[in-house]
Amino acid sequence: MTDNALRLGTRRSKLAMAQSGLVAEAVSRVTGRPVELVEITTYGDVSREALAQIGGTGVFVTALRDALARGEVDFAVHSLKDLPTSQPEELALAAVPEREDPRDVIVARDALKFTDLPRGARVGTGSPRRMAQLNAYARAHGLDIETVPIRGNIDTRVGYVREGRLDAVVLAAAGLNRIGRIDEVTDFLSVDTVLPAPGQGALAIECAADNAALVAALGELDDPSTRAAVTAERSLLAALEAGCSAPVGALADLLAGGSTVKEMRLRGVVGTTDGSRMVQLSTTGPVPQTHEQATALGRELAAEMLAQGAAGLMGERAL
């Protein structure tokens, strides 16, 4: 290893390596130290089971956190939507950099948009959240689609369309942006159609909580607006007692009044995967100035959603 280099723990996937490479460059700029990527295989990477069957929450995270605990890496980069909502005391969520596009997108055959898919179109996704909302939208707008559960990386998923096995697949805009493949998107799904996963499009940078100097250095990459938004979204998820594989969507965004940002709006949705029953609510409040205020915003909306029957729509509650 290079003298004085910081070791960044990352998953081996093309997307994870691209995300970690971006973070590595930024960390080198703020610390003046070289950063070396340490590739780590997680259980979520090697298992072929559906995420919901293997626990969803944490399957891409545990191995990275274990490497941190053993001192094999100095910090780690995660997709924030993969992080369990409870934070281990020994680890600091040192930075949440500025968020990428949080939307979901369609990659379809013949450059089709979602609403132009033929009757009976097969749409692939591994996400119960996407299934629930796509099926609900289809029901409401007279579309006839079949959502098909799939696993795999971006190449695998897009390959299903290219090979003619599926008519379309649903992916995250952020991932395609980060690996330079956004031009393959045939339709950007409005957040009014499909709310993203809590934290979607954002990265999480973790390190040992007792390494004050590194926590402070990494903290220079933190974007306060993004952190407030994802804190509210993840608080909603936690209050619903749902894991990251549950059919829960959430998005917090800032609302401008004139030239200044006045308020934060938090939207949440939960539904059955067939789209037959949905609870979708929103709340608006002052822009949170503290972690506690952002957390309260999420808890308040979750309480309203639970009062309207959200718990019964999630299948098995995450423990």
What secondary-structure arrangement, pairings included, does this model have?
Blueprint: E1 6-10, H1 14-31, E2 35-39, H2 43-46, H3 62-69, E3 75-79, E4 91-95, E5 104-108, E6 121-124, H4 128-141, E7 145-148, H5 154-162, E8 168-172, H6 173-178, E9 187-188, E10 203-208, H7 212-219, H8 224-239, E11 248-257, E12 260-271, E13 278-286, H9 291-307
Parallel strand pairs: 1-2, 1-3, 6-7, 6-8
Antiparallel strand pairs: 3-10, 4-10, 5-8, 5-9, 11-12, 12-13
Helix pairs in contact: 8-9
User: How many strands, which pairing sense, and closed or not: the largest β-sheet?
Assistant: 5 strands, mixed
Percent of residues in helices comes to 25-40%
What is the arithmetic mean of pLDDT?
89
Radius of gyration: 19 Å
Number of strands: 13
Structural class: alpha/beta
Number of helices: 9
Q: Give the amount of beta strand, in percent.
A: 15-25%
Order of helices and strands: EHEHHEEEEHEHEHEEHHEEEH
Shape: globular
Question: Can you characterise this structure?
Answer:
- This protein is an alpha/beta fold and 319 residues long.
- The chain is built from nine helices and 13 strands.
- It has helices spanning 14-31, 43-46, 62-69, 128-141, 154-162, 173-178, 212-219, 224-239, 291-307; strands spanning 6-10, 35-39, 75-79, 91-95, 104-108, 121-124, 145-148, 168-172, 187-188, 203-208, 248-257, 260-271, 278-286.
- It has a five-stranded mixed β-sheet, sandwiched between helices.
- Helix 8 packs parallel to helix 9.
- The longest helix is centred in the N-terminal third of the chain and has 18 residues, at 14-31.
- The protein is globular, with a radius of gyration of 19 Å.
- The N and C termini lie far apart (40 Å).
- The model is unreliable at 50-56 (pLDDT under 50).
